[in-house]
What does this fold into?
Amino acid sequence: MELTGTLSRDTEYEEEEDLTMTLELYKKNTCPYCRKVMDFISSTGRTDIIFKDIQSDPEAGKILVTTGGKKQVPCLFIDGRPMYESLDIIKWLEDHPQA
Ligand SMILES: N[C@@H](CCC(=O)N[C@@H](CS)C(=O)NCC(=O)O)C(=O)O
It folds into this structure.
């Protein structure tokens, strides 16, 4: 692809797409790291995150392992791509506030 010094229409479109990312937080209520992430989400008031509890939803636990590779929570799926580690998740959410 040829690169130019100007913002292409395609690039603008991709940035618009970012505004509608699907965010799913895999978690369990007994996990302190999950609690930390969920408390952060509550403090921001954002409403664009779907919660998947791997204790009450065994299917979610299977998806976490097959897609993410391990059954560790919290894990934030960003458009289907898994991000583990509570501090990384909070940092990412800070950098990407709800549109
Ligand atoms: N360093 C991780 C720790 C996460 C962690 O230890 N989660 C526990 C639950 S509290 C877990 O999922 N353990 C199962 C596993 O690691 O397979 C973070 O900050 O997110």
Remarks:
- Residues 31-95 form a domain with the Glutaredoxin fold (CATH 3.40.30.10).
- The CA atoms of residues 63 and 71 lie 9 Å apart.
- DSSP finds four helices and four strands in the chain.
